[in-house]
Design goal:
The protein is an alpha+beta fold and 448 residues long. 51% of the residues lie in helices and 21% in strands. It has 13 helices and 12 strands. The strands form 3 sheets. A 5-stranded antiparallel β-sheet has the order 2-1-5-4-3, with helices on both faces. Helix 4 packs antiparallel against helix 5 and helix 7 runs antiparallel to helix 13. The radius of gyration is 36 Å and the shape is elongated. It starts with a helix and ends in a 9-residue tail after the last strand. The relative contact order is 0.06.
Length: 448
């Protein structure tokens, strides 16, 4: 190892300082003599003039021999701009987000024009050639079509294109990079320059780096969108399904009342029609929690008619001000249905209490409690993981609840994020309490 390689860092800095001071002193003396001889100025004036020259030289020497500060400042500015671009792309690649990106990038590059396209049209264009490539116009440049087709970055010089009938446009030079999602080009980032000499490795690296950054954010946005769409699709499938046992039992109950109590039968038919119409209408992503509670109450109307009014006692409580809080449909009724199907004892009423209240940190708590058969710890732990058997409808609570319970648990995680959960507290013979904790702040529907 050489001596210079093994020299401590502090010794290198001291050496640099000594040589710098010596060089500036020499420069100052030479400048003073030169000013006095060339201008004949008073010695005090000449000395002040030399001090200014020396200070300017010191700044130049510092930045010439200490490029780390310049690199640090440039890196910091680039990272800040990249962060702003990621914020712009939260809604995906739109004319608005593309325009914001172009406006951010243009002052930071040597390009005279910056444009962003999708697969067919110009989304945004900023710079001297905006008249030739207005937002919404079709892609004209052959190089752009090549980049979209092959998914590789391209540079070109002296390209002449026809932008409209009877008018052509000459582009002196340009760099075009693909914007890719899952390996497919979904758009391009284009830098146009006023001279071919402006195209260099730095500009090429800038275009390539920013295109990769935009592509990464677009891929993240698509994953988030697909996740939300999957959750909504599962919700609609669950809402549309009709439990054949519930349908059969309810129709049988109504049929029995047609002989003994026709008026009651007509009321139940109206409620039944409203119940399933509401089930099918709740195809949107969100409904007020009060509407979900109303649908659950309708469900209990049929179960009371089937088992007897004295066998089910229900109580619903919604904290004031939370009635219009939006939640995914079909998250309370399955919990109540599970209690009716599996918690009811052979004798005595089953008490079901549904409570909705707010929690700290913008969260909503939905609690469904019963005083029925209950379950052991192992069964409670498996209630929401989808491992419960499905066929045995005579099993203790939780025996046939697997699909609906797992669906609720998965939708909560998708809709409300990692701080949300479904919890089961139960003891055999004492009852069960199921709590849904919904983190509204981390919800995919939160617009803040």
């Amino acid at each position: 190892m050489s001596k210079s390689a093994s020299r401590p860092a502090w010794l290198s800095r001291v050496s640099f300082l000594v040589w710098g001071v010596a060089a500036l002193a020499t420069f100052s003396i030479a400048a003073y003599l030169a000013v006095r001889l060339a201008t004949g100025l008073d010695s005090a004036v000449a000395a002040m003039f030399c001090v200014l020259l020396t200070a300017l030289a010191a700044v130049c020497v510092y930045f010439a021999f200490n490029p780390d500060m310049l690199r640090s400042q440039y890196t910091e500015a680039t990272l800040a701009m990249a962060s702003d671009m990621l914020e712009d792309l939260q809604v995906g690649l739109t004319p608005e987000s593309a325009g914001a990106i172009c406006r951010r990038l243009l002052p930071e590059t040597h390009a005279s024009t910056i444009a962003v396209t999708n697969e067919t049209h110009v989304l945004a264009c900023v710079g001297v050639m905006v008249r030739d490539f207005p937002p919404g116009s079709l892609i004209h440049t052959p190089a752009t079509h090549y980049v979209l087709e092959h998914g590789i970055i391209q540079s070109f010089t002296q390209e002449v294109i026809q932008v409209e009938e009877g008018r052509t446009c000459e582009i002196p030079a340009g760099i075009i990079a693909p914007l890719k999602v899952r390996g497919r080009a979904v758009g391009t980032l284009k830098f146009y320059f006023s001279t071919p000499h402006a195209v260099n490795r730095t500009q090429y690296a800038l275009v390539s780096g920013f295109a990769e950054l935009i592509s990464t954010q677009l891929a993240i946005h698509e994953l988030e969108l697909q996740d939300a769409l999957t959750a909504r699709a599962e919700l609609r499938a669950l809402q549309a399904q009709i439990n054949p046992h519930f349908l059969f039992n309810t129709l049988n109950t109504i049929a029995s009342f047609t002989r003994t109590d026709p008026t009651r039968a007509r009321e139940l038919l109206r409620e039944f029609s409203a119940f399933y119409r509401s089930t099918l209408d709740n195809s949107g992503s969100l409904i007020p929690i009060s509407r979900e509670i109303a649908q659950t109450r309708r469900y209990l109307v049929f179960e009371k008619a089937r088992f007897g009014e004295e066998r089910i006692a229900d109580e619903f409580s919604i904290e004031e001000g939370l009635e219009d809080t939006l939640v995914p449909a079909f998250i309370v009724q399955p919990l109540v249905e599970n209690a009716v199907r599996h918690a009811m004892k052979d004798e005595g009423p089953l008490h079901i209490r549904v409570t909705v209240r707010g929690c700290e940190d913008d969260a909503l708590s939905v609690e469904v409690a019963d005083d029925g058969a209950g379950m052991d710890g192992e069964t409670a732990a498996r209630l929401f993981d989808g491992s419960m058997p499905q066929a045995d409808t005579s099993a203790p609570q939780g025996g046939g609840a697997g699909v609906a319970m797992r669906n609720i648990s998965e939708r909560i995680k998708r809709f409300y994020g990692p701080r949300s959960f479904a919890r089961v507290d139960s003891r055999p013979g004492e009852g069960t309490t199921i709590t849904l904790h919904l983190d509204l702040l981390q919800s995919i529907f939160h617009e803040g």
